[in-house]
Amino acid sequence: MDKLPIMGLFLSKNSLPAFHKSVLRLLYISFFLGTLLPCSFAQTLELGLLVGGSNYQGDLASSEFSVIAKQTDITFGGFLRYSFNESFAIKLQAVKTELKADDANSSLDFLKQRNLRFFSPLVDISLRTEWYPFTANADYQQVILPYVSLGASFFSFNPQAVYRGTTYELQPLTTEGQGLASFPDRKPYQLYNGSLLAGLGVKFLINEDITLGIDVSANYTFTDYLDDVSTTYANYEELAFANSTLAADISYQVDDFFDINQTTPLPDTRRGNPNVNDWFFIAGITLSYNLVNPDRANGKGIGCPTF
After folding, report:
1. Where are the alpha helices (DSSP H) in 93-232?
2. Has residue 306 been placed in a domain?
3. Band of the pLDDT at 136, cuts 50, 70, 90?
4. Has residue 303 been placed in a domain?
C-alpha cells in the first residue's frame, strides 16, 4: 500500500518526514498493545465531550503566572474511549483551540522590546493509552479512578499576527528568511505536524453509564514554529527584496517599540531559541456516556457512588 490513512487523509509514505513516521508507529503500537492486553472483564465504549483551556510554551512564552493566564484560551472537543479491561483503555480524541502569546505581556524589558506576538488556531487529533492503577467494582464501590496516559497526536496550525491593525498569516512571509540563499538550512515549515503527549486524569463514575472527569495533557511537538519564531533574524534588506517590505517589517519590530525609523538587526541577532521545540497543553473537564455496557444489559453495575 503506497498511501497511509491519517485522520481521514491519504498521504504518500515518501512524503512523510521522519518524525511523522515515528508518530504513526507510536499510534499503531498504542492500538495493537491495547488489543493484546488480557481482557478480565467485558469491554466498554464511551462517547464524551471535553471543555477546558489550552496554553503554549515556546519562544514567545513566559513563566510568569499573569502571562500564562493571558495566554490561556478556551478548548473544546470530543473523544471515544474503549476499555479493554479494568486497567487499560485507548482513547481517540479531537480538540480545537487557539494558541497565543505577546511580548507586550512580559515584565522583562528585552522581551517587550522584541515586540513580537502571534495567535494560531489549532486542531489536534490524538490517540493515547490510559492506565488505571485502581479498578471499579460493585463490592467496594470504587468510583474515583485516577489514570496516566501516553500517546501521540497529529495537528494543524497557522500562526498569524496583527500588525498595524491588520491580521497577517506569518508562514507565507518567511519571517526568518526561510528559502533565502543566505540561509540554505532554513526551509519553509509545514502547517501540520506531530507531537508526543503525556497526561494525568481522574474519572468520577456517576453511575453505570455517565462519567465525569478531569484530564490534563502536555504535548511536545516536532516543530519550533508554532509561534513563527525559532532562530536568528534574517537580513532586513535581503528579506524585503526576496519577499516584501511587509515581511521584513513584521520580522523585526524593535524599532516599532521605540517608535523610531526602520532599522535593521545586527547579523546573528537572536530572535528565538532554535534548540528547544514548542509545547502546548490541554486541560479540561470531561463528560462521557457509556455506549456499550454489558453490565447494564446483565442488570449489574457499580450501584450508587459512596465516598
Report:
1. 109-114
2. no
3. low
4. no
Confirm whether 141 is domain-assigned.
yes
Note the maximum CA span of the chain.
77
Instruction: Identify the domain containing residue 201 by its residue range.
Output: 3-297
Strands (E) located in the chain: 3-6, 9-12, 44-57, 73-83, 88-102, 117-131, 144-157, 160-163, 166-169, 192-205, 210-221, 279-292
Amino acid type, 158: N
Its pTM stands at 0.82
Number of domains in the chain: 1
Residue appearing with cell numbers 521522519: 18
Non-local (6+) Cβ contacts of 1 within 8 A are: none
**51 assigned to some structural domain:** yes
Give one DSSP letter per residue of 199-239, joined into a string. EEEEEEE-SSSEEEEEEEEEEEES-S-TTS--SBPPPHHHH
Q: What share of the chain in percent tops pLDDT 90?
A: 66
